[in-house]
Structures are given as C-alpha cells and as structure tokens.
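Q: For a teaching handout, I want to show students what a protein-ligand complex looks like in token form. Below are the inputs, and the small molecule is D-glutamic acid. Please produce the holo structure.
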Amino acid sequence: MKKISPTTDLATLPVGIFDSGLGGLTVYRQIRTQLLSENIIYLGDTARVPYGSKSTETIRDFTTQITRFLLDQPVKAIVIACNTASSLALDVVRSLTDLPVVNVIDPGVQEAVNATQNGHVAVIGTTATIESGAYTARVQAVNPDIQIFSAACPLFVPLVEEGWEDHPVTQLIAREYLNPLVQQNLDTLILGCTHYPILKSVLKSILPSHVTIVDSSRVVARTLKEALTFHNMLNPLEKPGTDLFYVTDFPRKFKAISSRFLGHEPSCVQKLPIETLNRYSLRKE
Ligand code: DGL
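A: Here is the structure, written as tokens, with D-glutamic acid included.
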C-alpha cells in the first residue's frame, strides 16, 4: 500500500461515508462505535435510492458525483457503505483520489473465506451487485478452491424499508430466495447488501444452524481503523467526534427507516439538493 504523507490537518478531517440511502447507517454505526474520536460525514442518496436496479452507467455516475462532493468538503478517507456502488464503481472512487478508500466487499469476503469449513460460500445482494459478479471474482481471487453461489434478492430492500422484517410474507420470500442456496450445502452466507443485517433473524430461522452469516459492517469499520492507523491519520484529538448526515431527500417514513438502521433517530441531518450533486457529474450531456 502506498503511504500518504500525513499532516495533522489531514488527520483531523472527517471520514466521508456514503450509501445509496439509509442502509449504510449499519456501517456508520459500527464506525462510530469503533472510532469514537473521528468526525464523520454521512451522505445517503435517498432521492435516487435504490441503486440496485439501476444501470452500471448510472451507478458509476452517481458514485462519481458523491465522491467528488465528499472530497470537496474535504474528507480524509472514503467509505463506500453500499454494496452496489462497491461492486460497480470502486475503481471510479479510486481513480478520483489517493486517500484511503474502504469498500464493503473485500472485508466481508475475507471474513467469509476465513469462516468457511466446507468451501461452499453464498452471497445475496441486489440485482446489480449479483450480476456484476464482484463477490464471485473477489472470493476466487482470495481462494480459487471455494465454490461461490449467489442470489439476487430484490424484494428484501423494500421489505426492510416497510418495516416488515417480522412479517410472514418476508419469511415466504426469504425461503424462496434461500432454498436454492441451502441445497448447495452452503456453510457461510455473505450479506451483500447494507439492508440485510436487519433481516438476520428471519434468515437464521431458515438457514441450517451451522451456517455462518457474514455481516461485513463490523469488519468494514475495523478495516477503516487499520487504514487510518497505517497512514497515521487517526484523529489525534481525544474528544468525541462529530456527525453530519446529508440526505438528498427526506423520504416519507425517514424517521422510522433511519431509526431501524441506527437504533435511534439521527440528529444533525441536512438536505443536500440533488442539483448540487449533479454539478459534480463528469457525464457529458
Ligand atoms: N445500499 C444498497 C446496497 O448495499 C441497497 C439499496 C439499493 O439498492 O440502493 O447494495
């Protein structure tokens, strides 16, 4: 890894976290717990969520806009707290900065590879994430002997947003999605979408008890901590860090949905007009 020349100024800058919406708050939550002194800017693109059903070109454009906006704040590191953007636009983010960039795929893949005993790993995610093949490629790059199975679960995101994690309909749908994977004798399941940790108990009730469920949010936070430590960029100020949440829209049920991911309602939330982000596009009209 190329080392970044640290300056005290750089170390006191916030970390920028972004997601297509509010699901990335599951990642924010772990980062806040593990990195108490860090200032954080979280951007949820709530006006344009979901990304999981959009084209690669659009996902890459939205990711470009958000990354350039965050770099302008400025931030000292970027966490892509969205599996869809991590799958399809990690190279875009890396091409825009030399600062540390943490994605949600690699830490989860490493955890899954470490966890599997029988070499049968499965991943579930949005349609865009699964069709990108990003998880399959990364698992096989780490260990080519592992067999990886995958399933797109496009109905999970709206079910979580509706607060239906305990609803019988969610059980039925989850069975439909997971049964083909269970038949492959999986022993490890990667939750390849920021919304899915909310569904952990329903997934557990369907999967055989020996299956390890990999929720990468904790290990993503640890990866960020390691990257900041490596680059000597941990905030040296020993006081609780500040939070600033940007959303591109206040959707209906904003309070209920954000509380579901965060455990409480976020404070310091500001609306970021989508026109502001559009100005950061590199796409030729
Ligand atoms: N945040 C997205 C992900 O982790 C899920 C929601 C969406 O489709 O945008 O893939």
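A: Two things your students might notice: The chain has two domains: 8-103+218-278, 106-216. Residues 19-21, 23, 49-52, 82-84, 125-126, 129, 157, 193-195 surround D-glutamic acid (CB under 6 Å).
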